[in-house]
């Protein structure tokens, strides 16, 4: 079902000139000061409460208020109230119940990348978490919600979306329905004269296509603005004659380097891959995701995609889910595609993703907080001794999977600053510390049981 709202389709304009993706490659200046998580809590501050809310507590896209912190702490939890969207159906199967055995993980201590001592609970406040779910061996051991976050309320996932698209594409490759070695133009000939005209599906899937695409918000001619107008994220000026849909925009992109040579992460490549997936299957992205994943994991709620003016889903950052359902997907991946009593994703798919990509090419991109990492099928692979890998989105969205610790962390957030370069120094050590604590706890239990 397609939903539209009269005040819809405005851009979540970034508060800093950060990229519309899950992290910045280069070193960052210190972030500006903002109210902390408690001071910016939309529930405490009465944001959008009342019938109607007081004028100074109303959040709208049409006046830009939804894009400004701290209003984003409400809007990230209510995106479909403000933008057109389409459902990803959970189907009619029963909900897969998650067992619960809460542990005191909030007191787990760790040291940030900057050398500061911190507890896990403090880390959630420092990174403006809207909610978090930690699974250990498929059991909820920690679940908390803050601000406008709630167990049954979908939260925007931003670039976590890409990892779902990458997983679907890899499933199709394993099924023989998509050829990774084929040129992009086999599926989308309209891209022949674009940046993707001489790229392969595999190169697009691993972000190895260097399209000329700037997300410099200080530049009025940057490609981000026409992308946003085409996708309906901002209103078009009266004199605007450019693309009006994602499809129309993607064919305009030109290359600035040969494919396969550099890791060039950007949202438009994910939109291209989503187009390929739709062409290969003859299905809308929302229907395909429902059929292959969402209707099979025992999700509690429908997910949804925000869409452009003709109903095209944003495959680069438009998905929204509840946290527990995101954790169910993570648990499916951790178990090599098996969950809810069935093989949902072929084990070969998960193995292909988790082997990671070319570490040397990735290292040249200069992600300072991700040394030794790589990228494969729109997933970020740590290559650490735990075999951890993650889906990531701006403003702190994360699905972190640690196979050795048998742990999945699903976290939604609404940081004031988009880039994960500001978030990683706290969150990545925090996730590792929780994994270590769970493994230590298992060891203590095994030792006690052996007596």
Description of the molecule:
This protein has 451 residues and is an alpha+beta fold. The chain has one domain: Beta-lactamase (3-Layer(aba) Sandwich), CATH 3.40.710. Helix content is 28%, strand content 14%. It has a 7-stranded antiparallel sheet with strand order 6-5-16-15-14-13-12, with helices on both faces. It has a 5-stranded antiparallel sheet with strand order 1-2-8-9-7. A hairpin with a 4-residue loop joins strand 15 and strand 16. Helix 3 runs parallel beside helix 8 and helix 3 crosses helix 11. The longest helix has 27 residues. The termini are far apart.
The number of helical elements comes to 13
Task: Summarize the biggest pleated sheet.
Answer: 7 strands, antiparallel
Query: How many structural domains does the protein architecture include?
Result: 1
Strand order of the largest sheet: 6-5-16-15-14-13-12
Broad CATH class: Alpha Beta
Short recap of the structure:
This protein has 451 residues and is of the alpha+beta class. The chain has helices at residues 72-75, 120-126, 160-174, 184-187, 201-205, 223-231, 246-250, 267-281, 285-294, 323-334, 347-354, 359-364, 424-450, and strands at residues 2-3, 85-88, 109-111, 117-119, 129-136, 139-145, 155-156, 303-306, 319-321, 338-339, 342-343, 374-376, 379-381, 389-393, 397-402, 407-413. It has 13 helices and 16 strands.
